[in-house]
Amino acid sequence: MNSIQFIQEYLKTPRSVGAIWPSSSTLAKAMVAPVRFDQATCIVEFGPGTGVFTERLVEKLLPHNHLILIENNELFYESLKKKYSRFANIHLIYGSAEDIVSHIQQKGFTQVDFIVSGLPFTSLPEDVSTKILTESQRVLSPDGEFITFQYSKKKFSFISSYFSNYQTKRVVWNLPPAHVIRCSFQ
Q1: Which of 152, 171, 169 is nearest to 19 (CA)?
Q2: Is the previous residue joined to 176 through a cis bond, with omega within 30 degrees of 0?
Q3: Is 114 in contact with 145 (CB distance < 8 Å)?
Q4: Closest Cα to residue 116, out of 160, 179, 53, 164?
Q5: Domain Methyltransferase, which positions (predicted)?
Q6: Residue 174: helix, strand or coil by DSSP?
């Protein structure tokens, strides 16, 4: 998928795509850096979109890691399916992150070690955001992490309220600049 297609999808559904331009490789590195692949069994990515974070995750996957990609945009899902359906440890789901519990159970998991989220919490309806974070909280392992990014600080306290601890890091090499938020229970 190219940048023009990405912009077209944004124009069709700005609330769910959330950005006018794909994330930078610098942001992708910052989002994936906290994932402890040596310790993780199940990693979930919410809203992989064009796969910028997915590519970084796939580069670092170890044989014992399973990556579950949950995408609700049909064009993005089909593009990801073409790229990743041949991998036995990458599972694609066309659906909503709100249903993470049933999605991971469908793939044989009860817990998730890391959730990497590209979802635009600032533009999602509050009830959708609440359900996604509540359900994520239910499935995240005690030492797991929820990693997301936002363009503004508007939703920091909302997102972090579901977890005991959080850290932020600003990534200026992105259009627009972004804040990576790492949330955990420890």
Answers
A1: 152
A2: yes
A3: yes
A4: 53
A5: 43-144
A6: coil
User: What pLDDT was estimated at residue 12?
Assistant: 55
Residue 7 has pLDDT above 60, yes or no: no
Q: Enumerate domains of the chain plus CATH numbers.
A: 3-184 (3.40.50.150)
Edge to edge, what strands does the sheet with 165-171 contain?
90-94, 66-71, 42-46, 112-117, 140-150, 178-184, 165-171
pLDDT tens digits for range 80-114: 999 999 999 999 999 999 999 999 999 999 999 99
The whole-angstrom distance between residue 171's C-alpha and the CA centroid of its chain comes to 17
CB atoms within 10 A of CB 21: 12
Torsion sign, CA atoms 3, 7, 8, 14: positive
3: part of which helix (H) or strand (E)? helix 3-12
Instruction: End-to-end CA distance of the chain: give it in Å, rounded.
Output: 38
Average pLDDT over the chain, rounded to an integer: 90
Element counts in the chain: helices (H) and strands (E):
8, 7
Say whether 54 sits in a helix, a strand or coil: helix
pLDDT of residue 186: 85
